[in-house]
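Our preliminary data section would be incomplete without showing what the modeling component actually yields. Below, a chain of 328 amino acids is followed by its predicted structure, encoded as C-alpha cells that our downstream tools consume directly.
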Amino acid sequence: MTETSSSARQAFSRLQAHMQKQVLGQEKLVDRLLVALLADGHLLVEGAPGLAKTRAVKSLSEGIEGSFHRIQFTPDLLPADLTGTDVYRPQEGSFVFQQGPLFNNLVLADEINRAPAKVQSALLEAMAERQITVGNRSWPLPRLFLVMATQNPIEQEGTYPLPEAQLDRFLLHVVIDYPGFDYERRILRLARNEALEELSGEQAPAAPPLSQELLFQARREVLQVHLSEAVEEYLLQLVVATRRPGPYSSQLAAWIEYGASPRASIGLDRTARAHAWLAGRDYVAPEDVQEMAFDILRHRIILNYEAEAEGVTPDRFITELLARVPVP
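Predicted structure:
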C-alpha cells in the first residue's frame, strides 16, 4: 500500500468515526453515505421523521472540505429556487446569472416528493448531467457534487411521487428504521450533552476536514479494487435476473413487470468496490455484491399488480432472487 493510499484510508476512517459519533443507531445510513461519496453517486433516503437523516448529511458536510446547502422542498417551490436565475442590474444595463443552492458540493433535498414535477426535473438535470441550464446557457456544477434526497414513508397527502426515470438517477435507495433501545438511550444523552455545550459555549474543536484531493484519490483506489471474472459474472446475473427471472423461479417471473437497467449493473459494480474498500480489502467478495443489491435494485424494479395484490415488496423479490442465483 502506497503512502497516499494509506492517507486516503486513514482519512476516511476518521470521517467514518466522526459520523458514527454524531449519528447513533444508523450505521447503515453512515455506511451508504460514504459508499455514495466514494462511488460518485446520489442517494435517496426513506425513513420516518426524526431518524437523523438531515443530521447524517450535515455530519458528512462537517467532515469534508466543501460547501453544503439544505433545500426544503415544498409545493410552491420553483425551478429557479434550485438552479438560480438571471438578475437584471440596471447600473450595468445587463442580466447577470445568480447561482442557486445547487451550486454547492453537498446538497440535501429534504422531502423531495413534496415539490411538483417541474422542480424535480430541474434537479434531474443537475444529478444526471452535472450542469445547470438557464435559458440558452449552461453552467457546470462543482466536481464534487452529491445530492442526498429524503422522503417520508408516511404523510402521502400533497406529495408528488418521483417518476421512474428520476428514481433511476439515484445510485442508492436506502431505507432506514428506528434505532434500538440502547442506541435511543445514547441518543438522549448525546442530545442533552450537545445542549449543555451550546449553552456553555464550550464546544469541542472540530477535526480537520477530509480534503477533496484525498477524496478523489480514494475514488481512484475504489475503481482499482479487484473484481474477479466470477464475481463480475455473478453481479451481472443478478441484474439480468431482475428482467428475466424465469430460469430461476416461475413465481418471480409472475411478479415482475420491469427489471433493472444497465445503470444498475454499473452502480452495483461501483458500490460493491466502495463497500470492499471501506472494509479494508483490495478485492470484491460476493458478500459485497449481496450487501449492496437491495439499495441498488429496490427502486429500479417494478412489480406487477399480481405481486402487489399478494403483498410482495421489492425487498422480498430481491431476497428471493439472492437465494436463487448461484453464488461463485
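The chain has two domains: 3-200, 226-324. The chain is about 50% helix and 15% strand. Preliminary results of this kind motivate Aim 1 of the renewal.
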